[in-house]
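Continuing the series of single-chain predictions for the mutant panel. This is the parent chain; the variants come on the following pages.
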Amino acid sequence: MAEPDLDSPAVSRVREFLRDRRRHAWLVGGTVRDLLLGKQPCDVDLAIADDPRPLARDFADSVGGSFFTMSEEFRACRVVAQATATAGTGAPAGSGAVTWDFVALRGASIEDDLRGRDFTVNAMAVELPVAGAVLDPLGGRADLAAGRLAAASGEIFDHDPLRLLRALRLEKELGLAIDEPLAGLIRDRAPLASRPAAERTFAELTRLLAAPGACAAARRMDSLGLLEVLLPELTALKGISQNDYHHLDVFEHTLANCTALEQVIADPAAFFPGQARQLQQRAHRRLAGDAGWSFMMAFAALTHDIAKPFCRFIDVDGQVRFFEHDRRGGEMVAGILGRMKASAEITRAVAFLVRRHMRFEGLLQQRPPSNRARLRYLRATAPLTPELIMLAVSDRLSVRGRLVTEADIEAHLALTREMMELYFAGEEAGPPPRLVSGDELMRELGLAPGPLIGSLLARIEEEQRLGNLNSRDEALAAAARMLKEEG
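Parent structure:
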């Protein structure tokens, strides 16, 4: 394994600063690990023998960045600067922020500090600005070369149980295999996973349970005892049998659904040839906080049937049914994300996807659906219509019971393609010109402000899109008929 590249721009910047100030620090943790892997870090970790705060403030001034105290107890602070604000930070213009974390040594020496870290691959250091050899008291470099994730000690989870999830995240993101001693330690300490603050836990889960790799991560959490602690609603799906349209119980179907969704996300052109570019653009959207679009989608796939154990019954024909599991599932997932202190935006989005995921099945049952039914589906699923169509594909691909035929599957997938085309065609065309306003409806029909006005406007637009209305007078007459029909 090559020596770490200390000319990496973000590292080089702080190294020059230390040389100019005649100061000393240690480059530590994940930064050394990433440099050994040939990565260009935009997060730099530094350990300082004395109080790092004055030095960090001075560095913030030198790069035009912001200074934050992260922990008074551990004398930890952070400098954040936009990539465009610092000369040579390693990130292209407009790519976001670079961070430098300055933390006081924990222990009497750098060796003591490294022995108290989480994993051997994170327990290496390089002296700055002199740039000596990599200090590696626990054999992290050999573990990194072997693709192995090993614990720095048997007490790592007692000090910070969030490391239980971090181990799985590093396995996923870096391709390091958790070794057997560490796996056993995780299983033994899994009950501690509920102790960290909900916000810290959710931040790890947004990376661990994001596509790609969300299904494998959920299985890994289950095999190591973490799923039962953090998401018991998912493990409750085990053994819940379904009807003859399904070949898997609810738990295995959920994971199969997530796997199929990852295939759709990875290659949208295979399912929606004409809309791959638009779907890829949507996939890069950010949501509030750390959660992104890929987490939203994967978590919706993992929780779409979460209420089935509570809605299961057998009808008079002997078939297993799960009436209203979509509505109740939306309520449950909102509670789960609330428990995790997720943002209101991500909570609303995932709950909406779960609550609406059966709408496509209702559309399909019309065989073929009318133009009016198609428009109503688009309206009911906005603004996440493409995402719900993608989930309809993954749900279809993960249901292969004896009552399912290839013709059923093809009909389903054909309609998803048609609906995706219809959605983006409508988005490109934009809304039709409004024939009548809410004020006009109230004035001409003697109505008071309220939800009825919005409902009438939506129905008028629907008729307009169907080609049934073309003028203001026709819109007013149609609104009067709608009122009369509804009494």
